[in-house]
Amino acid sequence: MTETDKTEAYIQKKKELLAQNADCGNSHYNLGVAYLSQRKWQEAEDEFFAAVESSPSLAEAYVQLGGIRMHQGDLEGCLFFNKKATETRPKFPIPYGNIGFVYLQLGEPEKALEPLLQALSLQPKFVQAHTTLASAYFALEQHDKCIDHCERALKIEPKFAPAYNNLALCYHEQGKHKLALENMDKAIQFGFEVNSDFQKMLEAHR
User: Of 145, 176, 175, 146, which Cα lies nearest the Cα of 163?
Assistant: First the structure.
């Protein structure tokens, strides 16, 4: 059985469960996730809305709705649904991390700080939140704080390429070109697509 066949069988099973119990929020949520894996965005969205209607505390469904909005390029919609997730479950770290990321994408790094710090207070080993926070500090020219959070991320996940890229950017700004090159090389090694202009600029110092 192929992965596609397995997913179709899984979807059919969930539909059968929902035919017997249409108010099962978890079944709607799981069906939505299966549709996401097939890139069936509208079907997934319908199931996530059904999930929160049946189970209003299912914050994960709001996060998934935010993810769909992000995929569609609707940053404000992504922000809205992740805020709904924090209202639904205030101690769930993922939506706070997402809110910080969206503010960064909107060019408002100062607004990103509070939700990202909240995410990390709830989950200190949240690697993505450390790196997004580092990016916010870099945008605010607080390079020492950027470096600190990149190093914290790498203690948790030593191959997390975006953290190495942030370190390369910071060390370049500080004129520490050898360190910048070392971190750029690691970012590339672990799969990060470094900005070509930045790469050329650093290569000149090799």
Answer: 146
